[in-house]
UniProtKB/TrEMBL annotation:
Belongs to the NPH3 family. SUPFAM superfamilies: POZ domain. Residues 199-474 form the NPH3 domain. It holds the Pfam family NPH3. It comes from the Eukaryota. The keyword Calcium does not apply. Residues 496-511, 519-547 have a biased composition (Basic and acidic residues). This is BTB/POZ domain-containing protein At5g47800 isoform X2. InterPro entries: NPH3/RPT2-like (IPR043454), NPH3_dom (IPR027356), SKP1/BTB/POZ_sf (IPR011333). Pathway: Protein modification; protein ubiquitination. Keywords: Ubl conjugation pathway. One of its GO terms (biological process) is protein ubiquitination.
Length: 567
């Protein structure tokens, strides 16, 4: 940062309540009133250097005490005091932080060369051109101060010239960057890096007001020089700098942690950032898009903003990781912790795009690989949110069922999610258990998972029976090497009858209290199943002489039911 010192005399201004005056043996003959502050000054030396004061004092005699109201001076009383001290020759220090109000006030008072040689405006312009515009951080600080005097700064060309200077430096090749900049990325140590990072400028420009930041980004993008990813990184840095963090815990809506004014400011920043995201896919990460969507839910952003974020996130959803999706719910009415509705909305957007592609994708096509990657991601997410003790079963089932059948090559992940939910929610009703387990395709369970399922007392009896049959069918196929269609045809009658018996018993016992569901009903079902299985094995034995292992394998369910009955 560069500074300019003007004047040599000591500061003789002093303030007493709302009055500012100069220590002098000469009585004051000029009173300047600005807002609530009164300056007791002297016509000499102010009037000779200020064209405006010359005009206002033209009708007064030299001996008259003149009072002038200058309530509309840009920069207010502080800026006027700098100009007054310059007239008295009192030492003042100028920098990027106070240049704009001093320059605007000097222009307002017409302290130009036409009034007196070597006047204030000339010195300020020289400092602006040689120091502020030549410096990186000086240009940014000066530009930021223009927000208090936007019209004056715009009319005097300060904003345009600062933006041009900043953009020029941003577009400078990194090998020629020689000025100081702020770069505090985790793990980055300047001394260990000889080269300048491509995004060296992003942190410093994030100090700007959102409208000025937009001007910088728009000007940089118009050159088509920086890649879209670099623009996206600048947006990411700005969002981290100014938007609330909703990734750690649920914000306290009722605590007044954010006033409506600050929420409105955050909404304006969010919507501006979303509008500046380049259309190029990958210009920002999917994690950043999901984070913006979570913030949008918290701030109550406009539907247009949310829809645009969901659309962009849907385009890149395949790139998401589990950690990218774990956001707390932002609705105060939600009792559950995780924002499962956010994930469901993005998944729906992704599926709309996915269905527009080839209607008959081949097994190894990118379309199938993409949807299966999403399937594994959603199942992993379900396993996490299933641990939420307040998560409604309807939301879990809705998200799980949103995926098409092709999305799951196996149902092991879905089974784990269901098992976790049942473990964390022991009071779930039988109807809800059936509703969850209805999503499972037992044919898509691995042998290890099927082995776990048949011993899982949390599952409904119907589900265990289905797993047993498919497990038996799989074992039979591996022994006989018969075509799958023949095996299924022979097992289907047995399975249907067993299911019917099981349903009748479950319905009958459901009308009684849970304590009446005794091991007697299970034994009856077991005996009928065993009898039907034995008959099925006998028929197979007639066709396959010498295959004695088949009957032994078909009797395995008996041992499982005996274990469940003994409990």
């Amino acid at each position: 940062m560069k500074f300019m010192k003007i004047g040599t005399k000591p500061d003789t201004f002093y303030t007493e309540e709302a009055t500012r005056t100069v220590i002098s043996d000469i009585p004051s003959d000029l009173t300047i009133r600005i807002n609530n502050v009164c300056f007791l000054l002297h016509k000499i030396p102010l009037v000779p250097k200020c064209g405006l004061l010359q005009r206002l004092c033209s009708d007064a005699d030299d001996s008259d005490i003149v009072t002038i109201d200058l309530h509309d001076v840009p920069g207010g009383e502080d800026a006027f005091e700098l100009c007054a001290k310059f007239c008295y020759g009192i030492t003042i220090n100028l920098g990027a932080h106070n240049f704009v109000p001093a320059f605007c006030a000097a222009k307002f008072l017409r302290m130009t060369e036409s009034i007196e040689k070597g006047n204030f405006v000339l010195k300020l312009e020289a400092f602006f051109n040689s120091c502020i515009l030549e410096g990186w951080k000086d240009s940014i600080v000066a530009l930021q101060t223009t927000i208090k005097l936007p019209e004056w700064s715009e009319n005097l060309g300060i904003i345009r010239r600062c933006i041009d200077s900043i953009v020029e430096k941003i577009l400078t090749p990194t090998s020629k960057v020689s000025w100081s900049y702020t770069y505090t990325r985790p793990g980055y140590i300047k001394k260990q890096h000889q080269s300048v990072p491509k995004d060296w400028w992003t942190e410093d420009v994030s100090d700007l007001d959102i409208d000025l930041f937009r001007c910088i980004i728009t000007a940089v993008r118009s050159t088509y020089i920086p890649p879209p990813q670099l623009i996206g990184e600048a947006l990411h840095v700005y969002a981290c700098r100014w938007l609330p963090d909703t990734t750690k815990s649920r914000p306290l809506h009722s605590s007044g942690s954010q006033t409506e004014e600050s929420r409105e400011k955050s909404r304006r920043i969010l919507e501006a950032i979303v509008s500046m995201i380049p259309s190029d896919r990958g210009s920002v990460s999917i994690g950043f898009l999901l984070k913006l969507l979570s913030i949008a839910n918290y701030l109550g952003a406009s539907p247009v903003t949310k829809t645009e974020l969901i659309r962009k996130a849907g385009l890149q959803f395949e790139e998401a990781t589990l950690n990218d999706m774990l956001f707390p719910s932002q609705l105060p009415t939600d009792q559950h912790f995780y924002d499962i509705d956010l994930v469901a909305a993005v998944l729906e957007s992704y599926l709309v795009l996915w269905r527009r592609q080839s209607p008959l994708p081949t097994e190894n096509s990118h379309i199938v690989r993409s949807i299966r990657k999403i399937g594994k991601l959603i199942d992993s997410y379900l396993q996490v949110v299933a641990r939420d003790v307040n998560m409604p079963i309807s939301k879990l089932v809705s998200l799980a069922e949103a995926l098409p059948d092709v999305a799951r090559e196996d149902h092991d992940g879905l089974y784990k999610a269901i098992n976790i939910y049942l473990k964390e929610h022991p009071d779930v009703s039988k109807a809800d258990k059936k509703r969850m387990c209805r999503m499972l395709d037992c044919q898509k369970l691995s042998p290890e998972v099927r082995a776990h399922a048949v011993k899982n007392e949390r599952l409904p009896l119907r589900t265990v029976v289905q797993v047993l049959f498919f497990d038996q069918e799989s074992g039979s196929r591996s022994t006989t090497h018969k075509p799958e269609s023949i095996t299924r045809a022979r097992q289907a009658p047995i399975e249907a009858e067993a299911k019917e018996e099981c349903d009748k018993k479950v319905q009958h016992e459901g009308t009684k209290s849970s304590s009446r569901v005794t091991e007697t009903s299970e034994r009856e079902i077991q005996k009928r199943m065993e009898a039907k299985m034995v008959r099925g094995d006998s028929e197979k034995g007639k066709e396959r002489k010498g295959e004695t292992n088949s009957t032994a394998k078909m009797m395995e369910p008996k041992q499982v039911f005996q274990r469940r009955s003994s409990r």
